[in-house]
Amino acid sequence: MPDGTAATMNPEALATGDRVLLVAVAAGAVAQIALHVFEPPLAMTWSYAHLNRYPGAGLVALLLAAGLPLATARGARHPWAEAPPPQLSPSTGIGLALLLGLLFLGIGWFFPVRAVSIDAQAFAVEVWKGVVRTWRWYLTILSFSAGHRAAETMAGTPIPARDFVSGLNALLSGASFSLLL
Question: Which of 44-48, 101-105, 135-139 has the lowest mean pLDDT?
Answer without folding.
Answer: 44-48
